[in-house]
What does this fold into?
Amino acid sequence: MHITMVKKIKHDGSPCRKCAEVEQRLQESGLLNRIDQILIADERDPQSEGMLLAKQHQVELAPFFIVEDEDGSVRIYTVYFRFIKEVLNSQTSAQEEAAEILDNNPDLDFI
It folds into this structure.
């Protein structure tokens, strides 16, 4: 399995807040070493590796993870807690997953 994390640099040159938070969580939990490659989606450069991968996989959220399995299949994760639960086999709570989904989709709300 090969794991690529794609994080974003905004048009103004600043790093994506969510990307920095996710990278810090990975570092603090000792899981960052399980990421094989970190690429940048630079909004100022549509030809940056990360921007090309986002377009290829039709991803509009950052950060995202590309998991390439040994059988050649590819899975895309845009929800951090789902990624660490399903791929890195780390514990998460349903509340953490729901909060991240809501954060990524401001048009959604609890009922």
